[in-house]
## 1
Amino acid sequence: MLFTKVRNLSGQRGILTGATSGVGRALARSLAERGVRLVITGRRNARLVDLASEYPDFLVPFSGDITDSLFQEELVRYSTAELGGIDLLITAAGAGAVGPFFKSSTETMRKVFEIDFFSPIQLVQKTLPQLINGRTPAVVFIGSILGNHPLPLHSAYAAAKAALHGFVGAVRPELVSYGVDVNVAVLGPTQSEFWDNLISGERADWSQGRPLSAEITAAAIVSGLERGVPVVIPGWRAKSYILLARFFPSLIDRFVCWKRRSIAEHQSFAEHE
């Protein structure tokens, strides 16, 4: 079976985006503890510096706007020089918008797509020459259960994640032919600042649930990376949703219709970086 080789992460070198909070921050810690040297990036430099101070031999902060093409190029150049090469690319930066579509601005929807879709694929393009020459190289994308089956009020986020899932499926055979594994983590509700911001009076009642911790989520992603698993779905709730979406999608739609009255009449934008 493809993608089943075991990867020894100790000594590998990589780039991790979205490292200032949530799953990205948990991933930085988990990978550093396994001996991975990482250039960690995000907009909030103080948080990056604070995180890097916990693992000074493994984490190197480099702050900037991941949607900026020039910053992406500088990030790859800096990481290559600092680490001596790139074996891993993990794109954990993301953004989400919640609210009725008819009240959504084009600007907000574009921003969600810039962060959740275009930035990851642009960074893969810029990193690929280094990855091809890396040691058991791999790319890890952060997807969402809403990319498999969307829900109301999440139109921009669901569409961006669906596009990302489609991209991953199309590009995986291409990159595997170069020796680069492509993995995607399909997340359900996860405890992080990203969801905390959405929950504060903005997230619809029917979408509430007990979120999986960022640490458990990161552990599942790292385990999948070590085992070469192409798709990781952390937590039983996310797995259940994916199964329902695949075999009984009408049940999800009926539940949404039943809870339609709880759909909020307002919109929020949350970003983790």
## 2
Amino acid sequence: MTQTNIAFIGSGNMATSLISGLINKGQNPATIWASDPSEVCRSKTAALGVNVSEDNNEIAHNADVIVIAVKPQALKQVALPLKALLEGTNKVVISIAAGVDLTSLQAWLGDSIAIVRCMPNTPSLLGLGATGLYGNGNTTTAQKELASSILNAVGVSVWVNDEAALDAVTAVSGSGPAYYFLLMEAMQEVGIKMGLDAQTSKLLTLQTALGAAQMALDSDVEVDELRRRVTSPAGTTEQAVNTFEAGGLRELVEKAMNNCAKRARAMAKELGE
């Protein structure tokens, strides 16, 4: 891990997970700074051995990379005071706030600043996250690699070719965990209706989801082929799969994900300048 000075503005769960992941991958805690108005959050972060402060400008001044990890509604208030400090520097700012686009970020932070937008998802809290990233035209290859190394500390990351594709990232991975939770919830409920006790239904459902995901990750074939391999003609699985297909599952997933992306675009307007 490159020993770059990294500042985290906001020390909530996502920032703490990123900091822990970086330290676990070899980043020296002394090179990490974190700020938060909450004493509880600062104490929690300080326990990791990093530098903490209430002053965003102080930690930003010390850093090569500034990760803004605050709620989208608070981003403008946090970003505007940084503008003068950032002017004329080669610092890179990484925003993990959902729904705030580069147009707004550049207006608040400065047009000449390297800015990376990214969309991590909640499994990042377990080191199993999936993150999409996009950098503005000021972002160098080295800065992109640095951003990747930070987000890879909590899972995997991928770069998209245009900012609009981050809405698709939101629809696939950003909001995606909730889709799987919903399916697992439904399967658990039906298992109970079919006579299983609640704990058994839960265990079987969650372990099946985990196993299926691991098989898909480890396999050298696509998921459609994996599905075909476990779907015997005239068998029990085929009956269930055919029912899903006849019920319009694919069309419903498409509609849901399109609505998710549409909402992401609307949020950008609501949270922007």
## 3
Amino acid sequence: MFLYQIPNVSSATVIKRPSKTCKTPYVADVQFENDETTHMAHTACLGCGGLVDAGKEIVMKEVSNTKNVCKYRVSFAKVHERGEEHIVGVDPKLAEDMVEVALQKNYITSLKDVKEYQREKKFLNSRFDYCGVDANNVPFIMEVKNVPLADYVDCLAKEKKGLDFSDRHVCSKIAYFPDGYRKKQTDTVSPRALKHITELTEIALDPEKSMRTIMCYVVQRRDAMCFQASNVDPIYKAAFHKAHQSGVEIIVLQIGWNADGTGEFIRDDLPINFE
């Protein structure tokens, strides 16, 4: 099903990240094909498994705010495998926005005909992406997480060395969250993500709250066949399982993108590995 059209998108290559001019990992130097002019592009995704590192192909949209240092914002990464090109949504803000579009189009089965909702609502000690009232007049609170990464196995990069996946279909990958840099291997990858799911669990277990609590993971790529909390972060994985067992609803959306900025809503029930 058609979901959305991002206007004014263009393909480019990352030349340097962080930018030579603006030395932050959230800004990259990019160049268009057959054009040696360097432009700065905002990269909201930090790390992202190397998908937006130097030498990578990306798709950007123009930024309408003329006061912004960057004239472009990176929306997608291009992933090439066995002669196929896959467009991967790497912008967390895009994932949040597409959930709103899906709500408005009634594409999310368990949230059809919501009566009202607000974005960026403070609850407990966190700000959650959505707070509203469903079709049955039950309040809900929902946090959205972008899931740009997927692979044939979910493990550390060093553990993948030497493994052969040539007999696996390119669309048989496991999408996983979270993934990123840690100072220590015993640390959680994303303290903020851990805080969100822990507080949703707290709300779900409080009999006085009487509201739906929802974690919505948005897999912005076509080549994933399932989702799981990453083995790389056992702390978050344990919190994910506790949340599910405590009544937090887990929704996994899958969205497919094209290089021209058109997006397709694939499903709202991507299988979840709860092992």
## 4
Amino acid sequence: MKNLIYQVWCGTLTEEAKVSSKLMKQYADRIGAEYLLHTNPNIASKRVNSDGPYWEWLNPTIDNSFLEYDNVLVLDLDIFPVEVLEENIFEQDFEDVGACTEPFQGKQRSTITVGGHINKENDEKWAKVIKDTWNVTLPRDDDGHLKVYNAGVVIFSNEGMRKARDWMPFQKYINLMKSRGLQRFYTVDQNYFHAMMFVNDIDFVEMNNGWNSQIHYIRGPLVDTNSNINDERDDDTKFVHVQMSGHKWNEKHLYEITNLPKSEWTFEYNRGKSK
């Protein structure tokens, strides 16, 4: 099997992105995969009128050069493998596309608004557009919240990439969502990907969350008195998705965040501080 781990970045690489790339290249070598860090590719960007860099991770769905691979794993550059990970993600049981959920998001969005407009009300408004347009009801979690599928770790088979060429064009989706009064988060890549998984003939697999264990700040009433961090790492964690904004993490910080319990971190991690 010919497998590729693909990471993409637009602009100047941050220290965090450099560390992720280095570690993922080492992981690719261990599992016998090829690795590509694609900087400033300007492929998907040509198909949208704005926010082009957000769409570049979807290049395997439109660029035929990726079809030489049996499988392509697309990773954000804030994803880090646990130390000396040997388990081969390409051995997951999937047919077309695989991705992980963000288990905490439904609960958080039901209590607060993130980024000015990301909340339960707008999630439901977005889901109604999907229902009205394609007559598809999107999946929900056990608490009735719409599931959120994170685009930080997505795996495509060759067949999945071929099927994706029939998805709604990026700009057409953007225009549709804007015409229904939805704001930027709902008009760009992650929600597009989420929708396309369910409105097309795609064999989609919800992967084990150990492949995308989130660690991020909590906002609003869900904040625990002892911690403002939601840490989803557990014994099954393989990739850690570090979404603790407001810091300039170095390699030592990122090693500790990925591999050690919070009680063993040697740095200040309150929002806005790192040293």
